[in-house]
Amino acid sequence: MPKVLISDKLSDRAVEIFKERGIEVDFEPGLPAEDLLKRIGDYDGLAIRSATKVTEEVLNAGAGRLKVVGRAGIGVDNVDLPAATRNGTVVMNTPFGNSITTAEHAIAMMMALARQIPAADASTRAGKWEKSKFMGVELFGKTLGLVGAGNIGCIVADRAQGLKMKVVAFDPFLSPERARELGVERVTIDELLARADFITLHTPLTDGTRNLLNADAFAKCRKGVRIINCARGGIVNEADLKDALESGQVAGAALDVFEVEPARDNPLFAMDNVVATPHLGAATEEAQENVALQVAEQMSDYLLTGAVSNALNMPSISAEDAPRLQPYMTLACQLGSFAGQVTETAIKAVTVEFEGHVAKLNVKPLVQAALAEVMKPFSDAVNMVNAPVFARERGIEVSEIVHDRPGDYQTLIKLTVKTERFERSVSGTLFGGKLPRLVNIKGISVEAELTEHMLYITNHDKPGLIGGLGSVLADAGINIATFHLGRAAAGGDAIALIAVDDSVPPDVMEKLQALPQIMQVKTLNF
Ligand SMILES: NC(=O)c1ccc[n+]([C@@H]2O[C@H](COP(=O)([O-])OP(=O)(O)OC[C@H]3O[C@@H](n4cnc5c(N)ncnc54)[C@H](O)[C@@H]3O)[C@@H](O)[C@H]2O)c1
Ligand SMILES: O=C(O)CC[C@@H](O)C(=O)O
Fold first, then answer.
1. How far is 110 from 200, CA to CA, in rounded Å?
2. Contact 395 CB / ligand 1 (< 6 Å)
3. Where does 233-284 have alpha helices with state H?
4. How far is C-alpha 7 from the geometric centre of its chain's CA atoms?
5. Which of 207, 292, 379, 521 has the most neighbouring CB atoms within 10 Å?
6. What is the spatial order of strands in the sheet that 411-419 belongs to?
7. Is 437 a catalytic residue?
8. pLDDT tens across 242-292, in order?
9. Among residues 279, 297, 353, 355, which one is catalytic?
């Protein structure tokens, strides 16, 4: 009988469902990290919320038996996904169960901030009657800057419009059509900062959103802007926020999430114009019942039947197709991940073409796997299962083309991403029927293997690139593992894909970017 551990506070419905499905369950909310480490090897499944940190150490300790980690909620930043994937542990989440609740919390925080309700409540209970101290501001007619127009952001926009606010939104995935449908104005981040009276954040914490609201951003805001963060700590730089609150540039902040959680002695707590809650965004009876029920069902299905839903690191395919598709799946994911990481503007269309051996297989899971990887840099919630819906909601057209023609390779998968500004293709094949290789980027032939830490460079085909790049990396003690170059024509545009043994820190990236031959350099992780 499979055995599951619940190590965070989940609704009792989860325990009931596991038992009903014939799964042994230990319910130990608040289990200390050292005990989790000692005991995880005894379980097939681990059900969590945000408190349990599922680190590489925990996953390694569970390796061999731990088959699934189920997150009752959306964000999986407390789970080491690459380590789970390496250990063959499926990580599932419940992408929609707490969206309404979290959106309602953001609205509640905005109102609390506008009318200083927590401070007024404390003062009134203390017997003071400070009517003039607590002068508020109306929401009516104010501009709400929405950063991130996904599941939660869209609900917040809808509720704010009900309060007669004007909503301006920034999200690289927000198409003009979707913005029109939502009744929001699509703007750049700088426009949003300049116009918003209130700014509310609804993005995952990624390299692109970390410190999104920092000193520079606050300086671009209207004086007296108010900030609401019910997404993730780290999207707002807390030290910069404190300075901006002290100077009056920011009039107030309502924070549900913090750089370090649990947040016990955060310097922001000493400030009058801060409203704080202990990561309560998803904390309603309804949302907790939804996510507990969903995670328990999904984990039971996987442990008992092998069916996979809402997995973030595993494609959803039947047991029969799995072994045949697996190498192509890896290739499709690598092409998608490459395209997603190099794409910076709103995606209009994704096309996946198949040629040779792969064209004879069921290519649908490959399209979904590639598509999910394209969109992953922009959302924690996207996975192979929900990628088509996710794309449709964002106005991204997805096409699959299966060619019945001989080609240069035994198998070829070509992925094309069209954005508002350009169209970029990347193709790959399998060497020896199993080893994925990139063979073409933007029409330039290459032959590259994708490894954990990579640099992707677009450059002018001029002498000196290899020498300059080699010295910058060598000075930083970073070893080059492989180096692949390709060019459109002699002296024209060129690209380089370099595998390095360690991640490249920002100061070294700046030095690389300053090399005269380099147009753009990006780090990529696979
Ligand atoms: N406080 C809580 O308890 C709580 C509860 C649920 C979710 N969350 C957080 O809220 C986040 C959003 O949840 P969701 O369900 O709406 O996710 P979602 O994936 O549906 O939406 C996220 C949106 O952010 C956009 N985005 C990504 N990078 C961006 C950037 N640099 N600038 C602007 N937009 C960007 C994406 O395009 C996407 O549309 C989750 O990632 C999670 O971290 C917090
Ligand atoms: O479980 C929680 O309380 C928080 C959940 C929330 O942060 C999420 O990402 O779904």
1. 8
2. no
3. 238-247
4. 24
5. 292
6. 397-402, 347-356, 411-419, 423-431, 435-441, 444-448
7. no
8. 999 999 999 999 999 999 999 999 999 999 999 999 999 999 999 999 999
9. 279
Is 264 known to be catalytic?
no
Q: Is the CB of 258 under 6 A from ligand 1?
A: no
Q: What is the pLDDT of residues 136-173, one digit of tens each?
A: 999 999 999 999 999 999 999 999 999 999 999 999 98
Of 178, 202, 232, 437, which is the active-site residue? 232
Is the CB of 280 within 6 Å of ligand 2?
Answer: no
* Full-model pTM: 0.77
Encoded tokens for 464: 């000196």
In total, the chain counts a number of residues equal to: 526
Residue 256 Cα: closest atom of ligand 1: 1
Output the six-digit token pair for 152: 């939660």
Longest dimension (CA), the chain: 84
CA of residue 284 relative to chain centroid, distance: 24
Count CB-CB contacts under 10 A for residue 264: 9
b/e burial code for range 140-156 (CB count within 10 A of at least 16 → b): eebbbbbbbbbbbbbbb
Distance 201 CA to ligand 1 centre (A): 8
Residues in Cβ contact with 379 at an 8 Å cutoff, skipping those fewer than 6 apart? 150, 173, 204, 390
- Residue 291 beta carbon below 6 angstroms from any ligand 2 atom: no
Task: Return the domain boundaries, the chain.
Answer: 1-96+282-307, 99-276, 315-442, 452-526
Rounded average pLDDT over 450-474: 92
Q: How far is the CA of 199 from the centre of ligand 1 (A)?
A: 14
Task: For residue 283, report the distance from its CA to the centre of ligand 2, in Å.
Answer: 8
Active site residue 177: no
Cα-to-centroid distance, 74 and ligand 2 (Å): 6
Across the range 54-59, mean pLDDT stands at 97
Q: What is the DSSP letter of 311?
A: B
Q: Which atom of ligand 1 is nearest to the CA of 98?
A: 6
> Is the domain defined by 1-96+282-307 classed in CATH 3.40.50.720?
yes
Atom of ligand 2 nearest to the CA of 232: 7
**C-beta of 98 in contact with ligand 2 (< 6 A):** yes
Contacts of 309 (CB under 8 A, 6+ apart): 92, 298, 301, 316, 385
Please state the three-class secondary structure of 53-91 as a single string: CECHHHHHHHCCCCCEEEECCCCCCCECHHHHHHCCCEE
Q: Distance between CA atoms of 478 and 354, rounded to whole angstroms?
A: 37
**What fold is seen in the domain 315-442?**
60s Ribosomal Protein L30; Chain: A; (3.30.1330)
Taking the CA of residue 147 as reference, the ligand 1 atom at the shortest distance is: 33
Superfamily classification of domain 99-276: NAD(P)-binding Rossmann-like Domain (3.40.50.720)
Ligand 1, atom 1: closest residue by C-alpha: 281
Residue 441's beta-bridge partner residues? 426, 444
Residue from 349, 306, 311, 346 nearest 329 by CA = 311
Q: What top-level class would CATH report for the domain 452-526?
A: alpha beta
Tokens coding 262: 């649990």
CA–centroid distance, residue 99 to ligand 2 (Å): 10
